[in-house]
Amino acid sequence: MLLKTSLALAIGLQIPSLDGGGSGGTDPVDTEGGPAIEGEAYVGTSGELAVAAPRLPSVEIRIDGRLDDPDWSRGALLSGFTQYDPVEGIPGSQKTEVRVIVADDAVFFGVRASDDEEGGIRATLTPRDEFGGSDDFVRFVLDTFNDQRRAFVFQVNPLGVQGDGLWIEGRVGRGEPIDWNPDFLWESAGKVDSDGYSIEVKVPLKSLRFPEIPSQDWGLQVSRRIQRSGQSQSWAPLTDEVANRLSQSGSLRGLSGLRSGRTLEINPVLTGTRLGVRDATAGSFDHGSATGDFGLNASYGLTSNLTLDATYNPDFSQVEADAGQIAVNERFALFFPEKRPFFLEGTDVFTMPRRLVYTRSIGNPVGAAKLSGKMGNLSVAYLGAVDDVSSAGKNPVVNLLRVKRDVGESSSVGLVYTDRSVLGESFNRVVGADARLVLAQRYTIDVMASGSADGGAAEATRLGSLLLTRFSRSGRNFSLDASFEDISEDFQAGSGFIRRVGVTQAEAGAGYTWRGGPGALLESWGPSLDVEGTWNRADFWRWGKPAESDIRLSFRAFFRGNVGGFVSLSRSSYSFSPEAYEGLFLAGPISGERVPFAPSSELFSGLHAARVRGWLSRWERARVSLGASWSETPIFTLGVPADVGESLGGDVNVSLFPTGSTSLELGVRHSTIRRKRDGSRYSTATIPRLAARYQFSRSLFVRASGEYSSQTRGGVLDPISGSPVLRCVDECEARSGSDRHDFRLEGLVAYEPSPGTVMYLGYSRQMEDTGAFAFRDVTSKADGLFVKLSYRFRM
Predict the structure, then answer these.
(1) CB 423: neighbour CB atoms within 10 A?
(2) N- to C-terminal Cα separation, the chain
(3) Cα–chain-centroid distance for residue 538?
(4) DSSP-assigned letters across all residues of 118-159
(5) Which positions of the chain have pLDDT values less than 50?
(6) Is residue 527 included in any domain, yes or no?
(7) What's the domain count of the chain?
(8) What integer best gives the mean pLDDT of the chain?
(9) What residue ranges in 44-195 does DSSP mark as E strands?
(10) Is residue 126 domain-resident?
(11) Is the CB of residue 451 less than 8 Å from the CB of residue 432?
């Protein structure tokens, strides 16, 4: 998509330093190292995890990464780190020591991370949140409500570059349950020397949410990643035998008299735009006049645990457009994550087993307000918005309400209500209840029940239902999961994201992992088996056979030096009733005659697939991942299989770091589907991407990127006769294909010293090619020049 152009202006009282987040310098080498750290230690390997953090009324520490301020000697010392990946329970391979100080206005961390391999530290200047897969880092996890369900994450690489987010237990997704989209205001700095690196961090209490009670305890975890070896170690020992990572944290004890004060943040926004669009009729490319706009974002901390946010005419321009996705044989809508800052506050409360709240369904709000926070065991979040997505000037009004209560040590129950309505015309309302139960620390059960009402002034109200239950067993060696979901045809989540309705799904999976000892070449390996069945809902409750089934056997292996991969083999079948093909026909032997199209289910039975993927990130200056796949796949039309094809696909991604300030990203994805009947090509898609970035400092960088998307799709043909498949309503039309060859170029100069305070100057251009990579008679479709200036004002 074309990058939306913008100019934003905000006024503030605090001006962050040029090196980002108010931090100190980022010199890559400091031969002085840090001072020797002495004093009483809380040793993780000895189970000394309850830290009485010294409370100092005033702290004189300059955040410059040097650890030479006298106040550091007064901090609590955390030592005795334990490795948890790839080998669990052994002492960390590199010595790590952490100082902790709690002041009246902030929490301070000082880290000395030793390293005995010369040149072994991985550290680059990179934008916020983007170094987790390439650099060494130290991570601090603060569970400020000590509820073992949600925690703040602050992550710093050896040069002080920041990464931050929210740890949300129960969040669905790959890897750790961290949402990296929220950004907070805090300070950090780092220094690399011949013996390792040092880090200093200051997290203001104004950037945290915590209970308003006289005395409290916080959960605390500190971990370290050594990228060249793929090793991770933590202060409080971690094990996969326990489902909840936050429950294995240590603690900061006896915190009393904490006050964040009333926090007010204002971010007024002035945007300016100059767009160009091709006039297809005249064949010319016209630029409009430069335009300006004004918006305002505000946030007020009613208490230390309750926040009110509001926005008027917000600028939700993306610095970088969503990455292109292959969409030549997709059955369902593609999912894109939420990245817009206003919607990220309270994102943890809206987390549920299914996405009944998907804030990207609010496309272009005129104004919105949000209240979120936690009071005792009760978490609440409300969001109201007026969306400007109607060309008729009738804007939908959106109301989202979520309440969640903690139960026991790690369990919770919740309620949700959503309403998206156009006054006097249409409405969609959803109400749901859910629970997450953690039993015996190892077993997790998620359940959800939801109902929807969808209708309007000129139509009857349709009622729908959704039921879900999911079970999982955590284990370092043996893991198990199973789920069951039933969604009626009339269930509509107007403010959510549900891929399919009218189906019942059941799936189960189990895996076993063998692990090598310390220093083993093969660190871990093992198989897993997954089985899945999908029924048309009515058939399931009549004990009918599934419309879709899949069984998949996978094998994965991880080697010493951060090298790994997996391979999977699967067998799937599709069986749809003739009613599913309603509206699809073939031309009959007599002119004008139509014959209903309903291919035999035997064509889609026993389809095989194989996939392989690997990655290699042991080098200092390069990281590589690649994958390939072959499959017998249905060719879909209107969500049902119409033909059978053979698909070949693959992708390669290479990240290069020629210097500590320069990065290159090169990638290509490709997919080709050929009809199995005669080998003719049904579709092909190739998407190469190249991006280059130079980081002058942690705050200032330039970036250029280009992405070409060539996607062609042929017509849908009858798998027996090869005749075109027709869709007939009033008239008949062939299910024809498409042929698109687009590419976009983007350039950006950005200065971003802290979240919400930015200066951008950028340009993007969208072009159309006459053929795949022909680069002849290229036509510009649209372009945009944008400038953005914003400042996050906090007091």
Answers:
(1) 11
(2) 37
(3) 35
(4) TT--------TT--TTTS-EEEEEEETT--SSEEEEEEE-TT
(5) 1-39, 318-322
(6) yes
(7) 2
(8) 87
(9) 50-51, 55-56, 76-79, 82-85, 96-103, 106-114, 137-143, 150-156, 162-168, 178-179, 187-193
(10) yes
(11) yes
Residues 476-535: tens digit of each pLDDT:
999 999 999 999 999 999 999 998 899 999 999 999 999 988 889 999 999 999 999 999
- d(C-alpha 54, C-alpha 553), whole Å: 53
> Which of these three, 256, 279, 297, is where a domain ends?
256
| Measured distance CA(128)–CA(156) in Å, rounded | 10
> 256, 290, 309 — which closes off a domain?
256
CB atoms within 10 A of CB 250: 23
Q: Which CATH number belongs to the domain containing residue 227 in this structure?
A: 2.60.40.1190
Query: Is 486 among the domain residues?
Result: no
Domain that holds residue 632: 515-536+550-678+709-736
Instruction: Report d(CA 623, CA 627) in Å as an integer.
Output: 14
Q: How many helices (H) and strands (E) does the chain have?
A: 2, 47
Output the pLDDT for position 587: 87
**Under 8 Å between Cβ of 596 and 625:** no
Q: What phi-psi label fits residue 154: left (phi over 0), alpha (psi between -120 and 50 degrees) or beta?
A: beta
Q: Are strands 41-43 and 76-79 parallel, antiparallel or unpaired?
A: parallel
Which residues are paired to 80 by β-bridges? none
- Show the beta-strand stretches assigned E in 339-391: 365-375, 378-387
Distance of CA 351 to the CA centre of its chain: 13
Instruction: At 380, list the tokens.
Output: 């609440």
For residue 576, tell me if it sits in a domain.
yes
Element housing 540 (H / E): helix 537-541
pLDDT digits (tens, 9 = 90+) for 227-278: 998 899 999 999 999 999 999 999 999 999 888 777 899 988 888 888 888 8
